[in-house]
Amino acid sequence: MSCPLGSDNVLGPRILEECRPFDFTLLFEDAIFAVVPASTFLLLAACRLPSLIRAPIKVTSHRLAAWKLGALAVSLTFQILHLAYQQETSLLYTNASLAASLLQLFAVAAAALLSWLEDQRSVRPSDIMVLYFFVATLLALPRARTLWLLSPVVKLQAILWTLVTIATAGVLCIESIHKTQVLRLAYQQSSKEYTSSFWVRSFFIWVLPLFQSGFSSILALHDMPEVDRTLQGQSAENRLHQAWAKSQKARKYKLVRATFRAYLWPFVSAVVPRLCLTAFTFCQPFLISATLDFISDTPTSENSYYGPALVGAFVLTYLGMAISTAVYWRQTFRFNTTIRAGLISLIYRQTNKMHAGEFKTESSITLMGTDVERIVRHFWSIHEAWAGPVDVTIGVFLLARQLGVASLIPAVISIIVVIATIPISQRSGTGQKRWIERVQMRLDTTSSMLNDMKSVKMLGLGDKLYACVSTLRQVELKVSQKFRVLLIWQVVLSNMPVTFAPFATFAIYAIIQSVRGGQSLLANRMFTSLSLISLMTDPLLIFIQTLPSLWEAVSCFSRIEQYCTKASMETSVDNVTTEDGLELSSRPSSTASPRSVIEFQNAGFSWTSTGPQFLHGINFTVEKGQITAIIGPVGSGKSTLLESSLGETTLREGSLSPFSTSVAYCPQTPWIMNDTIRQNIIGPAEYDPKWYNFVVWACALETDFENIAGGDMSKAGSSGITLSGGQKQRISLARAVYSRAPTLVLDDVFSGLDNKSVVAITTRLLASDGHFRESGRTAILATHNNRLLPHADKIVILENGTVRKIGSFQEIEPELPQDHHSDSDDSSNEEVTVAAKQTPAGHLDKVLSTAEEESAVELNQARRDGKWSVYSYYFKSAGWTIMFTLVATICIYGFTDKFSSIWLDQWSDANEKNPNQSPAKALFVPIISNTGRTLHSHLLKATLNAPFSFFQKTDAGLTTNRFSQDLELIDMDLPVQAINANMSFANCVVQLVLLCILGKYLAITVPALGIILFFVQSYYLRTSRQVRLLDIEAKSPLFTHFVETMQGINVIRAMRWQVPFQTRLQELLNQSQKPFYMLFCIRQWLQLVLDCIVMGLAVVLVSLVVSLRSQFSAGSIGVALNLILAFNQDLMQFIKSWTVLETSIGAVARIQDFVESTPSEEKQEGELSTVPPQWPERGDLTFDRVTASYGPDSPSVLKELSLAIKPGQKIAVCGPSGSGKTSLILGLLQMIDLQEGSITLDGVDLSRLPCSTVRSRINVVPQEPFFMPGTLRFNLDRQLEDNPVPDSILIRALEAVGLWKKVREDCPGGGELDQPLSISNWSMGERQMLALARALVMKSSVLVLDEAMSSVDWETEATMQEIIEREFTSHTIISVIHRLRYVENYDRVALMKQGRLVEYASPQELLAAPSQFASFYYAKKASR
């Protein structure tokens, strides 16, 4: 039969068999294969050209551009020739042929211009060009086949079109070449991904070098490829900040709106590939139907083309699914990574604006470590929220064509499930909020503990804090159980459509057909429908699970939004002015005179706008170039007045003319960063050697640098733990001096300094010829050291929150105590560090924290190869019984769920149901509770049992990260992903077995498949393990930076360092982004590889069917193809769950390593002795030839020290800096290593007792008062909660130190002891008195005072001395002192020097004899 005239001039798409076998019509090819892609390209090119024209030239060569233009010219020439000959042949004429050819010509011409501009003004190959010519090449093939089928009539046209196709492919290849070698220098630092072509990015080829490095070596952070600019903190924050400013008018969800407004393109860019994925996915049922029809039909010559076409269709479909999946998830990952960068930057910028007191209730650490991470995790499936309903709608429509009314059954089940899920989702948001609040409470307590482990050790609070934090953890887990129960119900409901939809749908269809007498359910309709049900219910399951996740993410956004609205977000810190300070924008201010730097006019201040007013009637002016001293008793408001001058409080009355320039602020508690000493001094300023050396000399730090290993390049440690109190104060002062700020605000910076240092600093800075006078710098100094007052131009006396008197030193001198000249220091507290004591330079790396350096990465094989003991450790924590039960349940589920597919092949078994999935899911609640409690207990116990030297070397941020990030992964991700991974794995194994049975010869591919999977997982896991460890480790510096910023926010704001600290945050964030994003990329690479493997399985199966069609039944192939469809989804789910599981198990590995590698100060059980509860009863203490050090590799800090202290004796320990005073105390408390000799207390060798026992039986008042978040009762009572101290004893202690009145005033409603202790509202003197009250509560015969009076004024010192003499009359007292006012009240004086005891006698004997102590004492007397 001949071909009817005009058959090619219809849209078709298929031409009649009489014309050409298995081909498209010419009109369809012209309209769809030519007009649509060419028109789309021209529109996209028109949008792209303006931005390229404005862009600068970025390459140094035109060679590649010339090759591109040459290839385009060749393609254009062939197309013109083809058009000319096509118009001469009526056979090729259609209604769209001319338009199609012209559009293609215009497209190539436009491509020439676009190619030139893209080559010269872009750093990577053009995506538009690459995609267009790829599609053009692909779609040119059907036209070439058509023309050759029409040959020999149009042989010349067929040859020309073949040349066009080849030329188009050539253009595609040359357009895909990268340009990294010819980029200009300014653009050569771009990331590898950003400069790669579309195919290199989409197939993740650019990550292969990382895989190679990870497989063969140990990866470090510098091995991670740089992320491109759009994923970095600065770019992400700028966009979010602008969008945030535009979203202020919105009533609800401001931050959510701002986030999508800022990152709209990264979000929208994933829409097209997701739609493509939907299209390719729903091609599978049609392929199954076509395959089953092919098997059922009788072989003829007409359908001989179908077999190869089916194979090609399967290749295109699965390849399209793989590519669209890769592009879709890549864009989604980029969206999430950008959100992370923007939110962390925004939180940090807000942290820089908040009042320090607000950190008590708002923790940026929790927001960054928990809320942001959960947002990123939940937003993985953000596009499923809209794609799920689209997939379901398409599925229902296609299913209706197969099953009619019965197609509504899955939709009805799904709607019921959705309705049931809504209230659960809402409750989940509330449950998560309560859970996060409990996490924040635990982290606040843990962070406070880790930041002052010296005091924790000295006070023997290990057992109490272990019980306290463990209780907080148990409460946290209990609260989280409610959330997880809701999560289980979500999972159960979301699995109901998958479980019941197939059975219910086919059962209803069978009933309907039986009643109507309609057609039976044949294999083709059955398996096509089954695939549609699967494709419809799986997206619905994801959609149902996505809704509560997104609701939880919105809840996290709300917490961050609430935090960010604490202060105006529009304030710029690029050029920070005083008005940018907190609360100042609403203050009435007066104009300061040209001679003054700040003026108070009847000013009154409070911490909040509604809180009590603690300063009132403040009237005085600070003149430029003058030194103003502020003095007054404890609690008079000295520190508060200084903070008020910096804008850290709320002005309630009067007016204040604030500082007009930056201010160098030294708080009473020195702020020290975990960086080198030099970096602490210079801050973000440039290093000026000449000026730096002068500052070091002026602040009397030269000797200290000589005694510290590494000098000023040694690490200060977390919160300056490797430095003494005096050193920290002088470094803080040096920072202020180095800043060159015209005004310095110094809050009692001389309190912990020895006499020599005070004299040196006073002479070099405060004296008439000192630096302040000569440079004209203004100083405001709050002090209790009256010896500094003669250098002040003006002295302000505060009392009860107001100014009592203002005058010169001569005017107020009569009001000072008669012995004010002796209110100076004789020695500083001594170095409590490993870095001091002349540590040899060779040991420097062993004692310094290098958390932010590459050397901190443990380069061991376990990082690369992993270790199965981690899983054993986790299973043991969860409980072996419950874990075995879980695994057994999962295996049973996997077998019964997938094996039940065979009932479709045997319709008689159609009533068989899939088992419910809830039993395995329900087991994860007790698993989480067990593992969460056990692992946290191990981590906390290892931390509290670690020796003091461990904390000197370890960054607190690293340890905090384990309690925060690691436990977050263990609590939430690990159990869920472990169950999902095991269930998916069980499904995959069962499906593979069934495929081999049903596919017969397919079994021969299993060995090859196993080998491929083995090598892929080996290649992948070696890199994956290291990258996820680097991801966790790279977050630690972020935690440290946040903590240090919160601790020093007043200093940062006063000195106007917000911008450099924000820049530092961006640098750390960018480093953290690298492994974070790479972890996504390598996971997606693995998924792409597995998609290709599944494609291979499908193609092999279809090829076998085509080749051996007579040996297969339609039913068995239907089951096999549906299993492959499900196998692809289960394998994808398995890989997702497995990779997240690998990341989460890394947290377990870190905790296991920490627990196993952290040294313990506790002795072996066989070495320990026991003591009665009342020990020590007498306080008889003996040091016998003691030699001790801070570690096995550190030099001795105590050398052959022998000292006998009789019961009830009062001993004063004196000596210069580094003499061993504090080391003596630490040796007594078993906080340093005893190398030789012994220390006995009441005849008991302390080395034979547990360290915790020794510290819990000795009363200690440390130099820096330490208090934990909690109630006043909790902080006063060192005993465990099961043995509380009566209220009467606590109240008596507070009354004895004069604080009970203050406590009652702060709590007018009663319950004073059970109110939260807001220690930030207490002055330093009041805190020291509270620490003394804690000592009064404890019953012990030994009292240790570690410079307990160094930070109080002379009146408070007198009060404390009186209390000690009255309340501790019969106690043995060891007091490290640097003031000699009351030295004669002690029974004996121990003079230390270079770790040795040089003199030990009564003060009277030492003063009467020509002793070193006497010469020093009388020298100071003469210096009055």
UniProtKB/TrEMBL annotation:
Superkingdom of this protein's organism: Eukaryota
Domain ABC transporter, chain residue ranges per copy: 598-825, 1181-1419
Compartments reported by the entry: Cell membrane
Keyword match Transcription regulation: no
Gene Ontology molecular function: any one: ABC-type transporter activity
Classification via Pfam families: ABC_membrane (PF00664), ABC_tran (PF00005), TMD0_ABC (PF24357)
Transmembrane segments: 31-53, 65-85, 97-117, 129-150, 156-177, 198-221, 309-329, 403-424, 486-512, 873-895, 992-1016, 1085-1106
GO (cellular component) term, any one: plasma membrane
Residue span, ABC transmembrane type-1 domain: 275-550, 930-1143
Region Disordered, annotated ranges: 813-835
Main localization of the protein described in the UniProt heading: membrane
Mode of membrane association: Multi-pass membrane protein
InterPro entries: AAA+_ATPase (IPR003593), ABC1_TM_dom (IPR011527), ABC1_TM_sf (IPR036640), ABC_transporter-like_ATP-bd (IPR003439), ABC_transporter-like_CS (IPR017871), ABC_transporter_C-like (IPR050173), ABCC_6TM_D1 (IPR044746), ABCC_6TM_D2 (IPR044726)
Keywords: ATP-binding, Cell membrane, Glycoprotein, Membrane, Nucleotide-binding, Transmembrane, Transmembrane helix, Transport
Family under the similarity heading: Belongs to the ABC transporter superfamily. ABCC family. Conjugate transporter (TC 3.A.1.208) subfamily.
Protein name: Uncharacterized protein
Protein's organism: Penicillium cataractarum
